[in-house]
Amino acid sequence: MSNSRWILLRRGIPLICLGLATACNLGLGDPNSTGASSATPFLPEDTATSTATPTETPPEPTATPTETPIPLVYPVGPSGFPANVNPLTGTIVADPALLDRRPLAVKVTNFPRTARPQAGLSRADILWEFYTEFGNTRWIAMYYGQDAEKVGPIRSARVLDTRIIPLYDAILVHVQAFETVWQEISKTGVDTINEFPASCPAICRDPDEKYIENSAFGNTAELTKYARRIGLLAAGRPYLDGMVFDPAVPADLKESIGTRITFSSSAMAQWKYDPERKRYMRLSENASFLFEPLADRMTGEQLAVDNLVLMVVDTFRYKGQTGTGEQFDMDLTKSGKAYFFRDGFMLEGRWQSGGPNAPLQFVDADGGMFPFHPGTTYIGILGDRATGARAASSEWFFYNAL
After folding, report:
1. Based on the structure, what is the number of domains in the chain?
2. Would you say residue 344 lies in a domain?
3. Residue 39 CA: distances (Å) to CA of 50, 52, 55, 56, 77
4. Alpha helices of 151-213 — where are they, by DSSP H?
5. Residue 37 counted as domain residue
6. What is the C-alpha separation between 136 and 109, in angstroms, rounded?
7. Residue 251 belongs to a domain
């Protein structure tokens, strides 16, 4: 190599090193070094040296695809409900696993009036109300598609309960019963959860209640756990087909602002349609026999439902009655007149048996299935001699007669 070439090579070394810093091992005394560009600049081929290798730029993270909820196409029912739709309300449930249990039918008192406002009624899928005895009514609050942290006050069962509950494969939740009622529970095969031996946390006593008879309350999630523990929850879903739901209002309905129901001279109910909320709001008689809003003590809001049904049913004295107290029975194996209220309208139709272990069915005057508004339903049961009439205000008045 000539001196001129060596000088030029040496002059270029500092410039290269500035750019390659730690990667350079120049070997300036090596006369064979040519300064040619390579993967490892200026390194002899037989020299093993750790070098910085370029790394691949990681790809931009991509969003995990999520399933787009499929909107529910109405009408739905009376059978073939999608797996995430509650057949008692026609609505999508937040937790479809809840539909793998049996409904809980909780016996809730309505008298004495000091038991009001009740807790948890607004969370029920179906609310049943009927005359029991001595001027009083009681509720069956049926829970299936959602839970209620506190339901009650829970009171004793009646023979009438054993006619409704088997139709929905429900579990009766109550606090004690008359001996004759226990006999009917046994005869009809109704599964029950009584305060004892269930106890807390399934059914607890509220020490803040003034009257001990109105101090028992249930927690439906805990009641479900207890039912599973004692073997009341079989595999698979219960058969609850029978109702049809559709947000579209059927034709030929009569406008109605709601209804008043006189179950007895001391037990009266009023449901008024609220066009803004598009729901029926509950009012009950007070000690002065004036109507006042009935709230749910858990929410502080007025009790409301989406549909009303008034059923006229063959009701009679219980044949197995002992003593002089009132005990009533009813026949749900046939059919009878029914009045349906939804979306501020009313339609006269019929209720009919769906079978010995199947939910009731509700049909219009032509025998077609009546479509309920998706949501919760109130069912009031009246005796076969009950009367109903529409007032000029479009409010319907019903008078119970057994």
Report:
1. 1
2. yes
3. 12, 11, 15, 17, 73
4. 161-164, 179-188, 195-198
5. no
6. 9
7. yes
Q: pLDDT at position 1, please?
A: 46
Q: Give the span between the Cα atoms of 196 and 229, in whole angstroms.
A: 15
- List CB contacts of 345: < 8 A, sequence separation 6 or more: 249, 253, 254, 255, 256
Q: Domain residues for 99?
A: 86-399
Q: Which phi and psi (to 5°) does residue 23 adopt? A: -80, -10
CB 256 within 8 A of CB 397: no
Q: What is the mean pLDDT of residues 33-46?
A: 36
Give residue 251's Cα distance to chain centre: 29
What is the average pLDDT score of the chain? 86
How many residues are recorded in the chain? 402
Q: Within 13 Å, how many C-alpha atoms sit on residue 20's CB side?
A: 19
DSSP 8-state code for residue 302: B
Residue 62 lies in a domain: no
User: Do strands 361-364 and 345-352 pair parallel, antiparallel, or not at all (unpaired)?
Assistant: antiparallel
**Structure tokens of 42?**
């200026």
Helix (H) or strand (E) holding 20: helix 3-20
Query: Alpha-carbon dihedral of residues 363, 160, 395, 115, nearest 10 degrees?
Result: -140
Report H helices in 21-137: none
- Provide, rounded to the nearest whole percent, the portion of the chain with pLDDT above 70: 82
Residue 87 C-beta-side C-alpha neighbours within 13 Å: 24
41: helix, strand or coil: coil
* CATH label of the domain that carries residue 317: 3.50.90.10
CA 174 vs. chain centroid, Å, equals 21
Residue 21, both tokens: 């810093």
pTM for this prediction: 0.83
Residues of the chain above pLDDT 90, percent: 78
User: What is the tens place of the pLDDT at every residue in 74-90?
Assistant: 999 999 999 999 999 99
Position 362 scores a pLDDT of: 98
